[in-house]
């Protein structure tokens, strides 16, 4: 297969971790006989510095002309002025919106070798295998908003959802549940929010009409925050609106021991020439400015995002599994980056960890 992949390294540790994911994709291409062509674009703070905009039009065009997008992270203290008119995060939200990526898939699965890396008791973690489906282009992130001014220190954001926005993401989550354990937990705050009451009603109706075979439960978001650390193994697919999903996935990442381990895929309606969704793949962690440039960031979340890219945007399931198995093998061998160094056989930097995954991929295939 021939595929065009847009790479948006972004800021902070973004360039370091995407470089390793590209190495792994190159290795997959080489071993499995695919030609991956990489095109690089600016997004976030680096794009503001170079062009004045966090999402230059060339970046949107690059992504629209690619089969899939691999993204690092955006943001950093140098662009953090709360009064600034442009911010790196606008680039990230802008590209998600421009590509129509309404569903963000965040799987949380524990590598057996890392059961002790988490602050949560191993017996609570046994069997954790959940998928958070986060609505990504609606809600309070994109609703009408009023900034405060020095004269009038009042501000608001609006959590706004329409029936079609809720239906499409519910459908995608329910389909995912069908391919897993057949359970869907929909998160809302229907005891307080009007948008959540609509959310609950639409989810209920759609599931009854189209997915009677999938078990549905509604969970209030505050209760879900508790259940996620009390009995995380009880959940299969967790469906949440944009902000709730953002918050719950940072919490869920701690089940796996580190933010540096969790990948994500953002999917929309548009298909690429391979007949698959033209998705965007990024680690759930941020740009980690405190460790940027030091070569110590964990590249595994981005490498696992590349595996999701192979699966969802290129239909290369065997290749995706080979990458995931290589990551498991590296962890099982006790190789660790500093964020999960506890009990390591050997602590590696970013590049060495990427190289170890490539070696594991090679030895599994020969
Ligand atoms: C995420 C991040 C982003 C979000 C930020 C950087 C805008 O936290 O991808 O989870 O809130 O969506
Ligand atoms: Mg987040």
Can you characterise this structure?
This protein has 366 residues and is an alpha/beta fold. It has 2 domains: 1-103 and 269-366, Isopropylmalate Dehydrogenase (3-Layer(aba) Sandwich); 118-255, Isopropylmalate Dehydrogenase (3-Layer(aba) Sandwich), CATH 3.40.718.10. Helix content is 41%, strand content 17%. It has 12 helices and 14 strands. Strands 2-1-3-12-11-4-5-10-8-9 form a 10-stranded mixed sheet, sandwiched between helices. Helix 7 (194-210) links the parallel strand 8 (183-188) and strand 9 (215-220). Helix 1 runs parallel beside helix 12 and helix 6 crosses helix 7. The longest helix is centred in the first third of the chain and has 19 residues, at 14-32. The radius of gyration is 20 Å and the shape is globular. The two termini are 21 Å apart. The structure holds 3-isopropylmalic acid (IPM) and magnesium ion (MG). Magnesium ion binds at residues 246, 250.
Explain briefly what this protein structure is.
This protein is of the alpha/beta class and 366 residues long. It is 41% helix and 17% strand.
Question: What keywords describe this structure?
Answer:
366 residues; alpha/beta; 10-stranded mixed β-sheet; 12 helices; 14 strands; 41% helix; 17% strand; binds magnesium ion
Number of helices: 12
The fraction of residues assigned to DSSP E strands is 15-25%
Q: What small molecules does the structure contain?
A: 3-isopropylmalic acid, magnesium ion
Measured between the Cα atoms of the first and last residue, the distance is 21 Å
Strand order of the largest sheet: 2-1-3-12-11-4-5-10-8-9
CATH superfamily of the largest domain: Isopropylmalate Dehydrogenase
CATH topology of the largest domain: Isopropylmalate Dehydrogenase
Fraction of helical residues: 40-55%
Shape: globular
Per DSSP E runs of 2 or more residues, the count of β-strands stands at 14
Q: What is the top-level CATH class of the largest domain? A: Alpha Beta
CATH architecture classification of the largest domain: 3-Layer(aba) Sandwich
- Which structural category do the helix and sheet elements fall into? alpha/beta
> What's the rounded overall pLDDT mean?
96
């Amino acid at each position: 297969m021939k595929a065009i992949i847009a790479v948006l390294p972004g800021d902070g540790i973004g360039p370091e971790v995407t470089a390793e994911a590209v190495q792994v994709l190159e290795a997959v291409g080489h071993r499995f006989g695919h030609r991956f062509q990489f095109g690089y674009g600016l997004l976030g703070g680096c794009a503001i510095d170079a062009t004045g905009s966090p999402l230059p039009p060339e970046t949107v065009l690059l992504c629209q002309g690619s089969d899939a997008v691999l993204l690092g992270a955006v943001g950093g203290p140098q662009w953090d002025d709360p009064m600034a008119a442009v911010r790196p995060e606008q680039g990230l939200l802008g590209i998600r919106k421009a590509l129509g990526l309404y569903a963000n898939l965040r799987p949380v699965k524990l590598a057996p070798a890392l059961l002790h890396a988490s602050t949560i008791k191993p017996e609570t973690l046994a069997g954790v295998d959940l998928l958070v489906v986060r609505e990504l282009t609606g809600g309070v992130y994109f609703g009408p908003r009023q900034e405060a001014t020095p004269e009038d220190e009042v501000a608001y954001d609006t959590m706004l959802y329409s029936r079609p926005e809720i239906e499409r993401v519910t459908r995608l989550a329910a389909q995912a549940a069908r391919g897993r354990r057949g359970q869907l937990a929909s998160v809302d705050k229907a005891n307080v929010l009007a948008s959540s009451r609509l959310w609950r009603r639409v989810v209920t109706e759609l599931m009854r009409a189209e997915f009677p075979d999938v078990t549905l439960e509604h969970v209030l978001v505050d209760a879900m925050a508790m259940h996620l650390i009390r009995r995380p193994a009880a959940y299969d697919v967790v469906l949440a609106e944009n902000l709730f999903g953002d918050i719950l996935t940072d919490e869920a990442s701690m089940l796996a021991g580190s933010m540096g381990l969790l990948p994500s895929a953002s999917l929309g309606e548009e298909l690429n020439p391979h007949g698959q969704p033209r998705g965007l793949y990024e680690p759930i962690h941020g740009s980690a400015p405190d460790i940027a440039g030091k070569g110590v960031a964990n590249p595994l979340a981005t490498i696992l995002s590349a595996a999701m890219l192979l699966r969802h945007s290129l239909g290369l399931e065997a290749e995706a599994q080979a990458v995931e198995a290589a990551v498991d093998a590296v962890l099982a061998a006790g190789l660790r980056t500093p964020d999960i160094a506890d009990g390591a056989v050997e602590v590696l930097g970013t590049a060495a960890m990427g190289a170890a995954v490539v070696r594991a991929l090679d030895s599994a295939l020969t």
